[in-house]
Amino acid sequence: TLRACIFDLDGVIVDTAKFHYQAWKTLAHGLGFDFTEHDNERLKGVSRMRSLEIILEIGQQTLPEDQKLALATRKNEAYLEDVHRMTEADVLPGVRRFLEECRAAGLKTALGSASKNARLILDRVNLLPLFDAIVDGTDVANAKPDPEVFLKGAEALGVEPTHCVVFEDAVAGLEAARNGGMHCVGVGDVTILAEADFVIPGFEDMTVARLQELEVC
Ligand code: B16
Ligand code: MG
């Protein structure tokens, strides 16, 4: 039986990837190279510092640790300017309704995100009250595909992993769910997320009844 839904943030609840992309692109241009939307795919679900390392690899640059920290901080400040402009309208279609439906059906809800800004973002879009637990980049030591973020979410909810389903837009996130012994639903492109139990394009047509019909748990 299904008892809990655990959601990734970026790419599932909100599309903050476009803000990350703009901020990283500006940083890359400042260092004298370009960073494309195609390159940006590699940053999905990846931590801030690891993202910076990938970008420096693309630009074939090596920098000392203190400069890397300064760059990551500056990128985050630029990114947060966009986050502060977010409103309820930035929640992806169907997500708020689906979260409300989960809770009405007695399912627990948790967030499992690599972002250190997760609470701030949920507050901006007014979704904090719809989550029973939040586990984010400030709570975990190991990045997805390590299952830590989702296992901590399940633990905070008091639900066994086998009774949890994870919603993820990144392959590493689906692997994290699997590694934690959880079911997983891919949100996005079926050709990329083929290893999920099933894939939905978004939450517009998603219902708790459909989730139970599919008998993922
Ligand atoms: P921050 P998710 C991830 O969020 C993003 O997909 C990834 O692009 C970003 O680098 C990471 O959060 C860290 O974000 O700089 O805010 O700590 O998909 O795990 O919700
Ligand atoms: Mg994501």
UniProtKB/TrEMBL annotation:
Substrate binds at residues 8-10, 24, 43-48, 51, 75, 113-117, 144. It catalyses: beta-D-glucose 1-phosphate = beta-D-glucose 6-phosphate. Binds 2 magnesium ions per subunit. InterPro entries: B-phosphoglucomutase_hydrolase, Beta-PGM, Beta-PGM-like, HAD-like_sf, HAD-SF_hydro_IA, HAD_sf, PGP-like_dom2. Its EC number is 5.4.2.6. The record marks 113, 144 as: Important for catalytic activity and assists the phosphoryl transfer reaction to Asp8 by balancing charge and orienting the reacting groups. The active site is at 8 (nucleophile), 10 (proton donor/acceptor). Keywords: Carbohydrate metabolism, Isomerase, Magnesium, Metal-binding, Phosphoprotein. Gene3D superfamilies: HAD superfamily/HAD-like, Putative phosphatase, domain 2. GO terms for biological process: carbohydrate metabolic process. Its cofactor is Mg(2+). The keyword tRNA processing does not apply. One of its GO terms (molecular function) is beta-phosphoglucomutase activity. Mg(2+) binds at residues 8, 10, 168-169. It is an enzyme of class 5 (isomerase). PANTHER family: 6-PHOSPHOGLUCONATE PHOSPHATASE, HEXITOL PHOSPHATASE B. Belongs to the HAD-like hydrolase superfamily. CbbY/CbbZ/Gph/YieH family. This is Beta-phosphoglucomutase. It comes from Hymenobacter lutimineralis.
